[in-house]
Each structure stands twice: as structure tokens, then as C-alpha cells.
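Q:
Got a chain?
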Amino acid sequence: MGNSLGVVAAKEADFMIHNLLKLKILGQEVYLTTTHVSLLIICVALILIALVARIKLKDTNEKPSRFQNAMELVVEMLDGMVASSMGKKGAPFRNYIGVLFLFILFSNLSGLLGLRPPTADYGVTLGLGLITFFLVQVNNIRYNKFGAFTELFQPIPLLFPINLIGEIATPFSLSLRLFGNVLAGTVIMALVYGLLYKIAFFWPGILHVYFDVFSGAIQTYVFCMLTMVFIGNKIPDKN
């Protein structure tokens, strides 16, 4: 009896993971899912906001609008965050950190609009982690040259395996932290609406404030902050 009830309850909970279209590419079946749709919507929204902001900033004849003031405030906030964490070393990375922050934040908040948060898919967060890992290693080699490899044997050669694992673990630790927190919120909200749908009227909004807004913003900040710390640690202060 308990098992049958569990099956029925599981069918009612919607985790928003759906295959929308099946394509065949090079003999392989590829599915267009709700995650891809959410990614497309978020990317288009960010591009449109950027284009409108650029047009507004180029028009120096008109009085600055509220939208322009808001965009300038966001840019100043992101630049300040990079400067406070990385100092002068962060100047070349302001654009990347800014885009990363906005993309993750919009992705985490997309659940408020009924979309499946792309960051609840490990394929998305792993990709972000790998980009950060690539930047970390490129700048390590760029600034430290051969020292980028010899540091793996510090302070003693016996620690080489541990140091190597620590470097390789960077993208996985970043991606799993973001993925786990966002997925947990998505699963909990799906269970609330699926199992308590008869009484889920207004009070789930409080849970959305925590899981989508508060937790989403915190995880965005943590991911970007760790990215800046990892990159900054590889760049000598004299640069």
C-alpha cells in the first residue's frame, strides 16, 4: 500500500525535466529539453538587455533614463566586486566575471518564471567550471611560466599527487556546489507543488524567496568569488 502511494505521488511531482524534440544528428539521437529552452530564453534576454543598454549609453543627448542608471549601477557594482577581490589584477577579468555573475543569477532566478533553472543541470554548471579551470591554468602558465608545473611538487615532491588532485578538482568542486544547491531547491519546490498541490496557494511563495532569490543570489556570489580567488592566486602581486 505504501509503495503504491509513493508511485502515485512521484507521478504528481513535476521536476520540469522534459524532452521536447528528438533530433537525429550524425546517426545519434539528440534531445531538445526544457533546459535548452531555458538557456535560450536567458541568453536572448541578456543579449537584448546588453544591446538596449549600449544604445542608451551611446545616446548622449537625452537625459539618462532609469534603465540606464540601473545598468550603470550594476556595472559599477560588478566592477567593485572584482576590484575588491582581485585588486588591479582583476581588470582583464571584469567582463568575464560580470557575464558569469549575470548568467548564473538569471539562471537561478528563472524558476520564478516557471522555467527549469539551467544551473539545475550538471552539464551547464560543469561547463562553467571548466571555463574557470581553463582561465586559471592559462593565467598560471602565462605569469608563472615553468613555475606553474614546479609548484605541484611544493613543499615536498611527495605531495605531487595531492597537489595535482587539488588542481583537477577545481572545476568539479565549483560545478557540484552550484548544481547541488540549485537542484535541491528545484526538487523541493516540485515536491511541494506535487504533493501539497491542494493547499499550495500563497505560502510556497516564501519558499521561492529562499530557494530562488536568496539561495540563488548567494550561490551566484560564491561561484564568482571562488573564480576570482582561484585566478587571483595564480597571478603574482607584482603584475
Remarks:
- Confidence is low (pLDDT under 50) at residues 1-11.
- Residues 153 and 160 are 5 Å apart (CA to CA).
- The longest helix spans residues 160-195.
- The two ends are 68 Å apart (CA to CA).
